[in-house]
């Protein structure tokens, strides 16, 4: 025996399906936004990146100079790392420097020949 469905039942089912689709679309959009935010945060070092000193580097031939300013209320320990382009050239790590809140520091490093890469590492200082 076949049962007949009332037209209102179809409307309710259709409405529920529409709400489900809308909810899934909203969840998908939110997931995309959060994923993009997470990728952006990961690119800048994750959660710590918003508390690290702001630095810029300048490479001129065999010398690299980094300028850092700490606009945050906690001390950041910063260290310059230099990797030379030539295999025989000695890579170096500078001494770590604690940059206090509102503090400023300059770092310099060099290779005998060209700079391959130079980067700064950050470590929060407890206290």
* Counted beta strands: 7
Main beta sheet: 4 strands, antiparallel
Task: Give the averaged pLDDT, no decimals.
Answer: 76
> Low-confidence parts, pLDDT < 50 over ≥5 residues?
5-18, 20-24, 26-46
What spatial form do the alpha-carbon principal axes imply? elongated
- Straight-line distance between termini: 78 Å
Element order: H for helix, E for strand: HEEEEEEE
> What structural category arises from helix and sheet content?
alpha+beta
Global Rg: 27 Å
Share of β-strand residues: 35-45%
Keywords:
single chain; 127 residues; alpha+beta; 4-stranded antiparallel β-sheet; 3-stranded antiparallel β-sheet; 1 helix; 29% helix
Describe the structure.
The model is unreliable at 5-18, 20-24 and 26-46 (pLDDT under 50). This protein has one helix at residues 7-43, and strands at 54-60, 63-69, 76-84, 92-93, 97-99, 104-110, 115-124. By secondary structure, the protein is α+β, with helices and mostly antiparallel strands. Strands 3, 4, 5 and 7 form a four-stranded antiparallel β-sheet that branches. Strands 1-2-6 form a three-stranded antiparallel β-sheet, with no helix packed on it. The protein is elongated and about 40 Å long. Helix content is 29%, strand content 35%. It contains one helix and seven strands, in the order H-E-E-E-E-E-E-E.
